[in-house]
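> example.struct
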């Protein structure tokens, strides 16, 4: 620490700014919850349609095969009815075209008779399906392969006509017509499923939106609006009269909002009253402490009457100081507007030092280095309170074990349109926790057990003058506070 005056480069008159609270976001009507509900409904309905489609296309394939078996049975009957069971090649081709097969054969016991053929060579590799012996999972897999076209050119189908189960018929069918018809069937099923899923999803979506989403949006809007403005009665939810769980939630939310609004209103009033009492008690305690010093001097008087009266006066002052310390509570109260006038800064600081008996202390070196002719434009009472709080903090910052060597020093300098005042001590400095909330009531105490009101009150009073109170520096060698007091333009 040094004794030089304040350099202009270290001055700052900009008050601290506070970060604005982030705005609350309200979900727009038809927001993500509604969209997700509609999308999930469509997806679930389509999944249900897929579960229906797979057995359906498998059944379509087997019915296609069964129809060909029945047509083959009719062709066999027509052939048997012909004279000598013989037909011309043209008629045989017509019968095969009617069946849609390349070959028709009939089994009797352990023998098999070739009935009809188009006399064209067939590929040795072909698929096979037995209508009398099949499993549902293989039927579904074969149907999927048919729709995808992953099949052989021909397929051998074995089956019996419904009216003659003992008659086993084999037909060799080309798979191209089957694939074409299976795909046409799939397209029909797809569009039908799409229409059904859209219609079902719309009904489910509208029902759930009316029954659940809209009430939830009302609850959300009320919660967000009440959070933003709890004092606004319009933000309290209106109960719809429902008897289900959502109706219960609305009633409980309304009751909670009423109780919380009343509690906040009461808390705000108590806070305003509490801080007013806190500020008065804080400054009154300082005044009583000064009166206590005077009473200590009176106790040294040789007058018997004074010596008899002083103990009771000291006890009363001690009780008053203790009461003031116990009634410090946080809240909010507005200080009266300052009434600035020319004030001799040196004389005002000397008055504060005299009230605190700084001249009479042996453990603290008091140095008032304010120029005697320096005048400041300020409210004298409020500036007195500011200096009283800062000097009291400086005194309390001295190590309790040190008996000599402590120093409190005040410097002042005129700058452009302002006066800079520094109050420096050689105490132990401020801790990191104290610096973090230095000017916050009940959080920024400069010493252990302090309330933090002194610095908060001092800064509020200085800012009322258009100035600023700031921590210039602190460390093991001491602490310095700087006051930047705005002054009227002399021009």
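> example.seq
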């Amino acid at each position: 620490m040094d004794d030089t005056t304040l350099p202009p480069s270290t001055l700052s008159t900009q008050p601290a700014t506070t970060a604005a609270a982030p705005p609350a976001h309200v979900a727009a009507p038809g927001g993500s919850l509604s969209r997700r509900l509609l999308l999930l409904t469509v997806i679930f309905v389509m999944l249900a349609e897929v579960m229906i489609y797979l057995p359906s296309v498998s059944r379509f394939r087997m019915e296609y095969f069964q129809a060909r078996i029945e047509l083959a049975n009719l062709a066999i009957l027509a052939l048997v009815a012909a004279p000598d069971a013989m037909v011309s090649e043209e008629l045989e081709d017509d019968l095969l075209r009617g069946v849609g097969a390349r070959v028709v054969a009939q089994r009797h016991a352990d023998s098999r008779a070739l009935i009809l053929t188009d006399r064209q060579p067939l590929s040795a590799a072909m698929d096979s399906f037995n209508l009398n012996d099949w499993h549902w999972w293989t039927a579904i897999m074969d149907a999927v392969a048919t729709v995808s076209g992953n099949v052989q050119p021909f397929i051998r189908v074995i089956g019996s006509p419904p009216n003659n189960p003992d008659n086993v018929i084999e037909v060799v069918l080309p798979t191209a017509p089957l694939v074409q018809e299976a795909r046409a069937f799939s397209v029909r099923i797809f569009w039908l499923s799409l229409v059904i899923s859209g219609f079902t999803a719309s009904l489910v979506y509208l029902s759930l939106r009316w029954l659940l989403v809209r009430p939830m949006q009302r609850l959300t809007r009320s919660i967000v609006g009440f959070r933003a403005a709890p004092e606004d009665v319009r933000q309290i939810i209106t109960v719809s009269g429902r008897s289900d769980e959502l109706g219960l939630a609305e009633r409980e939310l309304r009751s909670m909002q009423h109780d919380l609004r009343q509690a906040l209103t009461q808390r705000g009033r108590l806070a305003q009253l509490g801080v007013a009492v806190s500020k008065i008690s804080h400054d009154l305690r300082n005044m009583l402490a000064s009166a206590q010093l005077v009473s200590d001097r009176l106790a040294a008087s040789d007058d018997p009457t004074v010596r008899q009266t002083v103990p009771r006066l000291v006890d009363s002052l001690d009780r008053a100081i203790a009461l003031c310390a116990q009634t410090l509570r946080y809240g909010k109260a507005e200080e009266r507007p300052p009434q600035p006038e020319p004030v001799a800064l040196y004389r005002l600081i000397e008055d504060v030092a005299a009230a605190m008996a700084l001249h009479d202390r042996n453990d603290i070196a008091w140095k008032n280095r304010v120029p005697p002719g320096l005048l400041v434009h300020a409210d004298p009472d409020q500036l007195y309170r500011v200096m009283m709080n800062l000097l009291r903090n400086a005194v309390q910052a001295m190590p309790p074990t040190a008996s000599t060597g402590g120093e409190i020093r005040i410097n002042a300098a005129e700058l452009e349109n302002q006066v800079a005042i520094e109050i420096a001590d050689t105490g132990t400095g401020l801790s990191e926790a104290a610096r973090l909330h230095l000017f916050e009531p009940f959080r920024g105490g400069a010493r252990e057990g302090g309330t933090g009101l002194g610095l908060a009150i001092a800064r509020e009073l200085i800012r009322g003058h258009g100035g600023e109170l700031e921590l210039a520096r602190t460390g093991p060698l001491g602490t310095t506070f700087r006051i930047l007091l705005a002054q009227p333009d002399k021009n």
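> remarks
The mean pLDDT is 77.
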